[in-house]
Amino acid sequence: MDKDSPCIPLGHIQTYFDLRKSLNLDADWLQQKIQFHVDNPHEIIEHIIGIDQASFYRNAGIDYLPGEDGRFINTRQVVALVDQAVQALRMPYLGLTMGNLMTISHHGMAGVAAVTQTTLRECLEVISRFCDELFPPLSMNGYLEKGEGKFFIREEISLAPYTHFFIELNMVSFYNIMEKLIGSHDYTKHVTFAYPEPAWGNIYRRYFKCPVIFDQPENAIVGCESLAERELPLANRLMAMSAEKSLFENIPTRAMRILPLRLRRMLMRYYGAFPSLENAASELGMSGRTMRRKLAENGTSYQKELDNVRQKLAREYFSRGGESITELALMLGFTDSSAFAKAFRRWTGLSPTEFLAEKEATAKAHRQ
């Protein structure tokens, strides 16, 4: 699956650009809410809720008519929508602003289904599953490690040049939602971002009431492990089930019916012990022959998807500070470090040693 695969429900994307549910049409309120001074707050209000819908979609290559609830768009078109909004508002930090404006109710039935789970762990699991279906260019997940709980966001399909917009929007939004559920900002030890600090880095620190660290292995909200089983104040199993049912009745999805994406997500779970094509096909409910054919129809193959996953895991390993090429080669299922080095050069144009040297040089330049 690539930037041109139509797998994102337009109905879901519309929630990003329709903030009327959470906007009080008052310029002073808006300026206080976004915590940043602007020359003309009324202009921001006009743009956020008044961009001509037909032109907005047409400029992104979307031939949309009101009422087409079953429409799917691709990643390239979503990025084009964001570009229009950022350029019209002249706000490169728009992701932060919009994320801070979003409330639980703004997320609609997805928000209701998430916050009515019994524990914070279950809430994050639901968010992860919804992301897979509603916005596959990103994946969201959580894990517990060494006394810490992490909720992280990964880019699965390139959202460049607006990767930061989507990361900012979701990180701020979920940070605020967690604060509402737990009742305090103190639950967060720090937040991390997997890219260099942008020119508007100071604005991040106005939204996050904790340390903000850039150039890290992942985009993550990091808190105490004990919070995972914290019972949520709005816990209601029946309401959670009803909200999820209503969500998917009103917003059709197709992401998890796209085989390359399903295969890639499955392979990510097999870190270090990847299944054969036949075993992977069996787990996905088909024969090896059928999988080969369906992958070919999508312009890919089992080996290409496996290489994509291995490359992602290799980059993450080095980003986390790992330096043993032999260890990484074994973890990724290569017979020896030489075979891994050849594959890594094919993926990146650099040997693992050259990649590490370049990484260290970049880190040193940032420290100076």
TrEMBL record:
<feature type="domain" description="HTH araC/xylS-type">
    <location>
        <begin position="253"/>
        <end position="358"/>
    </location>
</feature>
<keyword id="KW-0804">Transcription</keyword>
<dbReference type="GO" id="GO:0000976">
    <property type="term" value="F:transcription cis-regulatory region binding"/>
</dbReference>
<dbReference type="InterPro" id="IPR032687">
    <property type="entry name" value="AraC-type_N"/>
</dbReference>
<dbReference type="GO" id="GO:0003700">
    <property type="term" value="F:DNA-binding transcription factor activity"/>
</dbReference>
<protein>
    <submittedName>
        <fullName>AraC family transcriptional regulator</fullName>
    </submittedName>
</protein>
<dbReference type="InterPro" id="IPR020449">
    <property type="entry name" value="Tscrpt_reg_AraC-type_HTH"/>
</dbReference>
<dbReference type="Pfam" id="PF12625">
    <property type="entry name" value="Arabinose_bd"/>
</dbReference>
<keyword id="KW-0805">Transcription regulation</keyword>
<keyword id="KW-0238">DNA-binding</keyword>
<dbReference type="Pfam" id="PF12833">
    <property type="entry name" value="HTH_18"/>
</dbReference>
<dbReference type="InterPro" id="IPR009057">
    <property type="entry name" value="Homeodomain-like_sf"/>
</dbReference>
<dbReference type="GO" id="GO:0005829">
    <property type="term" value="C:cytosol"/>
</dbReference>
<dbReference type="InterPro" id="IPR018060">
    <property type="entry name" value="HTH_AraC"/>
</dbReference>
